[in-house]
Design brief:
The chain is of the alpha/beta class. It is built from six helices and six strands, in the order βαβαβαβαβαβα. Helix content is 48%, strand content 16%. The protein is globular.
């Protein structure tokens, strides 16, 4: 099946393992030029070895300077961007809300929400320069239904839905399509961990 992705320039955040690596590999199989970023150096190396032509870059999406450097590398290597897959996310703690620490709350929101903002911000001028693009924000069923004992994670995934809704309206005039995927439990290391 030809999905019309040949030579499209794609970035998948947290793309070195799990869902992200599979997404990246599918884009490569369709002929896209794909970059992934991750904080796991070993996973970056392994995913790149399994996927010829994949550009693997180290970046923490929760750190604005990392994302700025990442997009500078993308511009240098690909000359722009057509598709952004905001896949990075952490599961955060599973505990009563009164036991959640500042660090647990802040890290979950930083990766799951702020990381998407940090990636969208430099992507928009790239989309504008080519007349459009696509953004896929990974949310979760936890962004549609309450999940007791998962306050930081569920809150972050509701926020992703809201961010996606705003971007859909704001970027529509630029011919940028924005969607959120509200996935359930996935068979993999993170899903098995609970």
């Amino acid at each position: 099946m030809d999905l019309g992705l040949r030579d499209k320039r794609v970035l998948v955040t947290a793309g070195a393992g799990g869902i992200g690596c599979v997404i990246a590999q599918r884009f490569v199989a369709e002929g896209a030029r794909v970059a992934v970023c991750d904080i796991d150096d070993a996973a970056l190396e392994e995913c790149a070895a399994q996927t010829p032509g994949l550009l693997a870059l180290r970046a923490d999406v929760a750190v604005s300077a990392d994302v700025g450097s990442l997009f500078a590398r993308l511009q240098q290597s690909f000359g722009g961007l057509d598709v952004l897959v905001n896949n990075a996310g952490v599961s955060g703690p599973t505990k009563p809300v009164e036991e959640v620490t500042d660090e647990e709350w802040n890290r979950t929101l930083a990766v799951n929400v702020t990381g998407q903002f940090y990636a969208v911000r430099p992507a928009v001028p790239m989309f504008r320069s080519v007349g459009g693009g696509a953004i896929v924000n990974m949310s979760s069923v936890a962004g549609r239904m309450e999940m007791p004992m998962r306050a930081p994670y569920s809150t972050s995934k509701y926020a992703v839905r809201g961010f996606t809704d705003v971007l859909t309206v704001e970027l529509g005039a630029l011919n940028v399509r924005v969607d959120a995927i509200l996935r359930g439990l996935v068979n993999g290391p993170r899903g098995a961990a609970g």
